[in-house]
Amino acid sequence: MSGTALSRIRVTMGRTNLTRTTAVRLGLGALGAAGIGYGIPSLPTQLGLSELVGLAAWLAAALLLHDGILVPLATLTGHGLRRVTLGLTAPSWALIRVWCCWQP
To answer: Which residues are bridge partners to 18 per DSSP?
Structure first.
């Protein structure tokens, strides 16, 4: 069964119909939130003030790098490649995209 066919299978939870993909995403999100909720309270007891400030600065820089540079660059690259490769089959388009994005 293809990925799109799997995502069309409905999982009924109460009165709400969710796709399997949405149910998995919600479950993973809840698991991540539980992990954060477990880990955050222990940070002040295990790290000093300077280490907490350094951690906060590192996380802020990672967020800015990801959302400010990497996501727009990947989006523009994808849109540009889609224009250039218009009319190619999906496997050909995927090979060109991989070749363009992951060259050393």
So the answer is: 11
